[in-house]
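Predict both folds.
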Amino acid sequence: MNVQIGVTNAERLEAAGRTPEEQRNVRTVLAVYESIARSDFSGMASRLAPDGTTWVVGFTPERLGKHATNPNFVAELFCNGMHFDIRQAVAEGNRVFVEWDDECITRGGKHYQNTGIGLFEFNDAGQITSYREYIHPDNFFAVLE
C-alpha cells in the first residue's frame, strides 16, 4: 500500500488567518505539518518557545512503557513520512485549531490511520507555547512497536 506523503487541503488552513498575527501563526502550523509529513519532527521543536509544552491524549508513561524515555520514538515510528488531510482550521488571536486525518506506513510496515485535532497556542513572538493533540490513542498504540 502506498501513502501519499504531504499535506492536502492546506488551503483550508491557509484561509483560517485574518489578522497578520493569525496568518503568521497559520503559516507556522502549516510548516509544522509539512515537516512532520516529511518525517522531520524537528519542525515542531524548532518553533516551540523555550518554555513551550506539548501534550498528546493517552500518552501516559504507563501506556508508553519503554518508549517514555525515548524522546524520538514518534519520529522513529513514523520515519517513512505521513499524509495529512486538513479537514478544518480556525485561527483566532494566538490560537490555531486544526482537524485532520492522517495516514502512514510505520517503520515496521504497519498501516496507520487516525483522526486528530491539534490546538496550537502562540506567544507574541510567534513561537508555539502550547500544543495539544487529541487523537484516538488506541489507533496509535495498535502500531507502536
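Second protein follows, with its predicted C-alpha cells after the sequence.
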Amino acid sequence: MNRKDTVKWFSGRMLNKLDANTYKKHWRFIHQGDLLSNLEAQENYLSKECRVGGSRTEVIHRCINIANYAMMIADNERRFLEK
C-alpha cells in the first residue's frame, strides 16, 4: 500500500468513527483540556495494548481515536487563527 492509499484507508476509518459519534456534542464545545485528557487516555490504552501484544484491531482502534482527538484539538486551535 502506498502513502496515499494508507492515508485514505486511515482517514476513512477516522471519519467512520466520527460519524458513529454524531450524537455527542461537537468538539468545538468541549474544553481543550478535556480533549487532551481523552487523547492521553487513548495513548495509555494504546501503550498497554502494544506492550502486551494485544489485538491488532484494538491497536488500530486506539490509533484512530488518538488521531481524531488530535484533529479535534487542531481544529479548535485553527478556528482561533482564522479570526
